Known about the structure:
By secondary structure, this protein is an alpha/beta fold.
Amino acid sequence: MPKTSKKIKLKVISSPEITDIFIALNVFGYDDENNPKGMSIIRKKLRSEISNKDFGKKYPVLKKMTRSYHPWHLINFALSNSDGKRRISFFYELKKFDDEPIIRKYRKLVAEEQSKKADILTRRFLKEITKIIDFLNNPKLGFKKVIVMINLLDSYWSGYSFTIGDSVYLITGPGSIDERVNVLSHELFHVFAPNYHLPKSFPARVSREMSRQGYVSKKIIRNEYVVRALGLVYLSYVKKINMRQLHWLDIEKDFPDIREAVRIIEKVGRYAL
């Protein structure tokens, strides 16, 4: 096993609570999807089966919060130990929601699907973690464990990252193994992004679509530029993918200043080339 991977424990898990949250999101109208082919099979089946059910009156808090909060915040509720009336009432209703036969059915189906490729994802992503940490010149790690979850009820290339205590939680959508590894790598770069800074003069523009997805504050946008720039430099120098092959025009539709961000990150260095 490569040297750096010994420092980190990696585990692919299923989270019944987070599955319940995404079932509730889909029940109450969350329909984000970024794959031209459409939603995953299990997500389509769920949405079809619950389309004739009215859970709104029975679970008003779930309905309100799934429509008011970005999924990131709801996942954070589940992973963190934060308190508060909203969180308590949300999870009280989620617990009752979980007792519904159709919810139990899909929770079980999701868990079965999640376990099918957990082993291969563990092996593949552990190698990727090692490459990323080596690429970043073995930075000081603020975590000991990486906990990965596959979310089959979200958009294909969605991803989330959370650092809680000595653990990093990374969540990927239902794409292929390669797509999952790519999403997880992107989310891991988020953990290291605070080590890099763009100058104050950096424009940090985004498309309307990215604004709609929650990229609104300067801090969030600049952080996303750093993460994407790190990812592109990594693909170029470690994966040996020619910069011309990195679909610049597609990236620039949403992040028009990405080339400048890459130039800045390349100059900053702090990684092993």
